[in-house]
Amino acid sequence: MNFLFYMFLSLIFVILKTTLMPYFSMFDQFYDMLIPFVFYLGLYRPAREGIPFVLLLGFMQDSLSGGPFGIFLTTYFWMFVVTRWFVTFLHAGNKGLWLIVVAAGVLVENLIIIATILWLGEASELPPGWGDRVVTQLLWALITGPVLIIAISVAHRKWSGWASRIVAVVKEQES
Amino acid sequence: MIVGLVVAVTVNIIVLSLSTRHHKKAYVPGRIALAIVAPFQKAVTRSVRFCKNIWSHYFALVSVTEENQVLKELLKEAVQKNNQLVEVELSNMRLRELLNFRKNMTGSFIAAEIISRDPSSWFKAVVIDKGQADGLSKGQPVVISEGIVGQIAEASAHQSKVLLIIDQNSAVDALVQRTRARGIIEGKSADQCFLKYVLRKHDVKVGDAVVSSGLDGVYPKGLQIGYVSGVIKRNSGIFQEVAVTPYVDFEKLEEVLVILSVPESVSAND
User: What percent of chain A has pLDDT above 70?
Assistant: First the structure.
């Protein structure tokens, strides 16, 4: 059931980012919407549940992107691992953490992309306006990141409640 | 008794006949009565009419409200339909352009629709709704009537990823149409490319058209790419920097043509 929820939610985020948002110029420099989701998985879900799905997300994004294959896989995997490591000595329920965690993730993703372009790719320089792009993404992340994590958390709770009710009804009918 | 009755009837007949003859004359008592009674009559009549109007208006308003709701719904539907028709008209125009473009080109093509864009703002790629099942494969050029869009970077069964020419990993062998100066078009940003490796000695001016040379083995010769929007000749170096603005508006891209095969005649050799 959880896996279904993750699939459903990630599909919504991917469709939003690749199909709907391009129609609105204000979202031209919006950050990768799966970052808050990866953090959510890292903060609140066990590794056995999170890692396969994070890899699946990375694979999906890499398949859709025109960039070198593996950028998103790398980004998501390490984000998840670092988040899991952080919650060993930081309280995951700390709302202050939410404020910066998405922005930090966006920064990390951009750094990985920049490093890939400069050192692994054939480009000798970054495309013009790269600084503005990163700053805009960070601002978006600071404003909307915590909201997205809260929304994911609430949606997951509702989904779990709804799913457990369905399971109970099915068991009742079977007995 | 009988005599009295006869007299009364006779008098009555005489009075009636007299009043019949002079019925157009107004009598003062009649006028007074009229003056006294008429205002009351008027008031009552108006009151009745007022009530009648309120009654009829109330019902009329109820029906008008209902009619208003119906009309609003109809208007909404009409606006929606109008929007759909505008979309169809625009789509029709775009497809006609593609069709005209296709008529002027040789070789086999397939039209495709863009279904999504790159999830990252760092890379410039789109996904189209045609794939290997439709005869698409990696490396095929993608164009529209305005010019080159990009090339197929990856093809699955029913979808393909198109690397746009504005992506930094894209390269197109190109010519300045007027002077035949050669260079490589590389992507830089959403609205600009650079024509690299153009020798300083070559004459390149702002406004010059840039077309594909056909030497890269991907794009047929002579396809429009863009126009020169800036030329920088530095003090040193053997090349000049040429900025090129693509003819294609990548923000508004919706339908594209994939060139499946280019006839032998359309090659770098002609």
Answer: 91
Q: What integer best gives the mean pLDDT of chain A?
A: 82
Residue B269 pLDDT: 40
Q: Which of A59, A141, A85 is nearest to A108 (CA)?
A: A141
Q: Which of A32, A123, A129 sits opposite B189 (nearest CB)?
A: A129
Q: Nearest CA to B193 among B117, B248, B253, B252?
A: B248
Buried (b) or exposed (e) across A14-24, using 16+ Cβ within 10 A?
A: beebbeebbee
Q: Residue B105: what residue type?
A: M
pTM of this structure? 0.69
Give the pLDDT score at A29. Answer: 83
B121 contacts in A (CB within 8 Å)? 28-30, 133, 137
- The one-letter code for the residue type at B113 is E
Q: Which of residues 137-196 of B touch A (CB under 8 A)?
A: 153-154, 161, 163-164, 167-169, 188-189, 192
B102 half-sphere exposure, CB direction, 13 A CA radius: 17
Rg (alpha carbons) of chain B, rounded to whole number: 44
In sequence order, which residues have a C-beta less than 8 Å from that of residue B214 and are 6 or more positions away? B173, B220, B221, B222, B266, B267, B268
Q: How far is B181 from chain A (nearest CA, A)?
A: 23
- Tokens encoding B110: 């397939």
The one-letter code for the residue type at B118 is D
Chain B: closest CA distance from residue A124 (Å):
10
Low-confidence residues in chain B, pLDDT < 50:
265-270
8 Å CB contact of A67 and B120:
yes
Instruction: Read off the tokens for B13.
Output: 């007949």
Mean pLDDT lowest for which of A11-15, A56-60, B69-73, B105-109?
B105-109
Contacts of residue B175, defined as CB under 8 A and 6 or more positions apart, other chains included, come to B181, B182, B183, B210, B211, B212, B213
* C-alpha angle B4-B8-B13 in degrees, rounded to nearest 5: 150
Strands (DSSP E) along B95-232, which ranges?
108-117, 125-128, 141-144, 147-155, 160-164, 171-176, 182-189, 192-199, 209-212, 224-232
